[in-house]
Predict the 3D structure of the following.
Amino acid sequence: MHCESHSDNSQTEAIAKLISDYPEIVSANAPLNELTTFKIGGPAKLLASVTNPDNAKMFLQFANEHALPAVCIGGGSNLIIDDKGFNGIVLKMDIDLFEVSGSTVTVGSGMVFDTLIAKTLDSGLTGLEFASGIPGSCGGAVIGNAGCFGHEISEFVKSVTVMNGLGEIQVIDKNGMQFSYRDSVLKNNPLVLLSIELLLEEGDLEQACQTRKDKIELRRVKHPVEAPCAGSYFKNLEPEIPGERRRAAGELLDKAGALEMSVGGASVYRKHANIIINSGNATCADVLQLADKMQQAVKDKFGVQLIPEVRHLEWNGGNLVINS
Ligand SMILES: Cc1cc2nc3c(=O)[nH]c(=O)nc-3n(C[C@H](O)[C@H](O)[C@H](O)COP(=O)(O)OP(=O)(O)OC[C@H]3O[C@@H](n4cnc5c(N)ncnc54)[C@H](O)[C@@H]3O)c2cc1C
């Protein structure tokens, strides 16, 4: 028989009170699979929608007081969530502020990145159109320095506003963000990204709208539409000569026979060896095992260690709580 300890009891009571105080934005035992593009993962102990800095602070304080792990998610398009789910509080970033002043745009981290691109073009500002069709939120795009076709979001970032686990707000400028390929200082720091200030251009709007159309069409042809996925699973490789283009991980995976691989409900997308698809009730364990197999095949054939781009959110993971 399981006996709940005193602290289990007080946590359960506190959770019940939080839900009754904020029924519209907090839920318990909340399925996370539908919040990811992989459509995989168990429930979160608590799921809270963050719509402004004040409720971000309140949820962080709650997590700290009750020793609950906490983590942010945006569009869930770069995540594989554990089959057991997440043993803490997931902060779903829903801050969707949008303000334009001259060529400077301030955007909430929860706005869908592609919506931002459309809105900036509607406001007569160009620059971001290269990224049209990248799924996920603005926060996720900035944290992972999303990019494609030779450009990255970092080219347009002026500064970001973040909150630490104690609820304190700070501004980090572009240099402080230490952007590099699919990386920034925020990737492994316990900070909630609240909003982003971008410096855009007043370029050729007609050309930019055409580029947007072309990129969306290109993605429609290149990426799986028939099955859920999280985009490229592994990062591309460092260039052999500095300054040259990165070598595509998909090329090595293809040569190592990955296109034929599958584990359970997870398989490699037949048109792109660096994409794992959920081809039918895949579990997180299936995906991780398949990724190991792909990584091993490339290691055996080329002696190269591929590094996952997709992040695994573990049952007891989370990175925002200071005292847990
Ligand atoms: C079909 C497809 C195509 C893709 N094409 C590309 C591409 O061309 N280029 C590219 O770079 N990526 C691509 N991706 C990957 C993905 O879309 C990007 O990495 C995206 O920017 C992730 O944003 P997200 O909001 O979904 O992040 P999530 O998956 O929700 O989160 C990613 C990480 O950021 C953290 N995080 C998210 N928001 C916050 C926040 N506000 N504060 C603190 N931490 C936060 C999470 O904890 C997690 O660690 C593709 C994915 C798919 C499915």
Summary: The chain has a mean pLDDT of 94.
